[in-house]
Amino acid sequence: MNQQEQQELQQMVLEMNILDARFKEMQQQLTLIEQQAAELQVLENNINEIEKLEKKKDSESLSQVGQGIFVKSILKDTNEIFVNIGSKIVLKKSPEEAKQFVKKRTDQVMNVRNLVMQELNNMVLNIQLLEKQIQEKAEVNQI
């Protein structure tokens, strides 16, 4: 193997390592996106449960104040849900409006998830192609 071929091979290996690192980053992003989608599903379920409590005014409930920390509370009005829409802006919404907001966010998250999945699939194809090219180049140069 001459020096130029060796440099080409090293360049291809470097490119594959970069692709592999990027692939792992994208997998981590996908995991976070899927966690966010799951949280939105729980939120939608919680809003549905709040709607069921509409007829049970002053019913006792547990309200989350932090991760895994709850306080007892009494639901006075289940017709108003306060939604943080971003930038510390909170709007009063009906349960139906809140569900629509959550659905819109879920759709956005799922669109991003689909884009990331598509990118991951493309990266797999690129990595496989590059691996094949490296293997062929290494085999040709060993003969």
SSE diagram, text form:
Layout: H1 3-52, E1 59-66, E2 69-75, E3 81-86, E4 89-93, H2 95-142
Helix pairs in contact: 1-2
Short characterization:
This protein is an alpha+beta fold and 143 residues long.
Give the key terms.
two-stranded antiparallel sheet; single chain; Helix Hairpins; alpha+beta; 143 residues
What does this structure look like?
This protein is of the alpha+beta class. The protein has a single domain (about 5-55, about 80-140), classed as Helix Hairpins (Orthogonal Bundle), CATH 1.10.287. The chain is built from 2 helices and 4 strands, in the order H-E-E-E-E-H. The strands form 2 sheets. It has a two-stranded antiparallel ribbon with strand order 1-2. A two-stranded antiparallel sheet has the order 3-4. A hairpin with a 2-residue loop joins strand 1 and strand 2 (about 70-75). The chain starts with a helix and ends with a helix.
Rg, alpha carbons: 26 Å
Q: Helical region count?
A: 2
* Count of folded domains: 1
**Unreliable residue stretches:** none
Largest sheet strand order:
1-2
**Main CATH class:** Mainly Alpha
Which whole number gives the mean pLDDT?
A: 90
The geometry reads as rod-shaped
- Given the helix and strand composition, which structural class is it? alpha+beta
Strand content: 15-25%
- Any idea what the CATH architecture is? Orthogonal Bundle
Provide the succession of SSEs.
Answer: HEEEEH
CATH topology: Helix Hairpins
Quantity of strands, as a count: 4
Largest sheet: 2 strands, antiparallel
